[in-house]
């Protein structure tokens, strides 16, 4: 299986690029974030013509997630258990859920397409929401893997966190001043790893950014951030035989500000083969 995650930053504006990438790179499963449309507005026809089935989840022109797959998508969920909601001026457990998570089982792999809240600023209620959202995601991952330790689970998407200083090359993003690099956010990311997940890409691609702001010539200057990840359980991560960050997708006409992150899986090989071990 070849699985990719990509914050496409409006699928209707970039459907040709997205489908072309999926076909050219022989992607079996593509998790998308920031589709920025409702399900009835999603450009299904272009994906279906290329041999993909799509499930989409969006509530407005903001946020939104989707999964395109060459194999059937089973047990589709539009939120993980305990996922909190958010609305400006609305606090409490009954806040409306945003379109930020979609899970599906594909070829025995439980895949989640996740668009973690941005946080906006360190003093904003959206930052508190972001931390609560990540804490709920950690509880879901921990509970799931305690119940099913052999499950091939993948949490993929835009995490809006640069976990290490080496993952941040944007001079406008400063620890203690801006989001994405604050200690609580980085601790929340680490808690996902402590819950039994591993960064399935970093052992094979130790450096490289996945996002560059459109402003201030960030991409030509390579002032980017590594904020898009594939986090996998033991069963998933130990099946990874290849990985890549497709930097060239940031080039050309009207690119997304993010690029795809891809992993190749061998889910059928013996346990004692020569595959790179993540754990």
Keywords:
Deoxyribonuclease I, Chain A; six-stranded mixed β-sheet; disordered C terminus; globular; 279 residues; alpha+beta
Write a structural description.
The chain has 279 residues and is of the alpha+beta class. The strands form two sheets. A six-stranded mixed beta sheet has the order 3-4-2-1-12-11. The protein has a six-stranded mixed beta sheet with strand order 5-6-7-8-10-9. The longest helix is centred in the middle third of the chain and has 23 residues. It starts with a strand and ends in a 14-residue tail after the last strand.
Sequence-ordered SSE layout with sheet pairings:
Blueprint: E1 2-7, H1 11-24, E2 29-33, H2 44-49, E3 53-57, E4 65-69, E5 74-77, E6 101-106, E7 109-115, H3 125-147, E8 152-158, H4 183-194, E9 198-199, E10 228-232, H5 234-237, E11 240-245, E12 261-265
Parallel strand pairs: 1-2, 7-8
Antiparallel strand pairs: 1-12, 2-4, 3-4, 5-6, 6-7, 8-10, 9-10, 11-12
Helix pairs in contact: 3-4
């Amino acid at each position: 299986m070849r699985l990719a995650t990509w914050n496409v930053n409006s699928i209707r504006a970039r459907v040709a690029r997205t489908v072309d990438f999926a076909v050219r790179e022989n992607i079996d499963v593509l998790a998308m974030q920031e589709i920025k449309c409702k399900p009835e507005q999603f450009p299904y026809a272009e994906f279906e013509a290329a041999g993909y089935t799509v499930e989409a989840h969006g509530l407005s022109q903001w946020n939104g997630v989707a999964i395109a797959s060459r194999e059937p998508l089973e047990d589709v969920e539009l939120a993980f258990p305990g996922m909190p909601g958010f609305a400006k001026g609305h606090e409490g457990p009954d806040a409306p859920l945003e379109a930020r998570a979609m899970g599906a089982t594909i070829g025995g792999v439980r895949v989640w397409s996740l668009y973690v809240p941005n946080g906006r600023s360190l003093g904003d209620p959206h930052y508190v929401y972001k931390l609560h959202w990540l804490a709920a995601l950690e509880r879901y991952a921990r509970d799931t893997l305690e119940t099913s330790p052999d499950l091939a689970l993948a949490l993929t998407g835009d995490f809006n966190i640069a976990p290490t200083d080496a993952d941040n090359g944007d001079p406008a993003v400063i620890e203690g001043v801006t989001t994405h690099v604050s200690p609580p956010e980085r601790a929340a990311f680490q808690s996902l790893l402590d819950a039994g997940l591993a960064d399935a890409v970093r052992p094979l691609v130790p450096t490289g950014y996945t996002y560059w702001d459109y402003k201030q010539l960030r991409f030509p200057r390579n002032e980017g951030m590594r904020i898009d990840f594939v986090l996998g359980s033991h069963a998933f991560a130990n099946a990874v035989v290849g990985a890549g960050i497709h930097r060239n997708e940031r080039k050309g006409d009207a690119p997304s500000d993010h690029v795809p992150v891809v992993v190749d899986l061998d889910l059928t090989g013996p346990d004692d083969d020569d595959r790179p071990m993540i754990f």
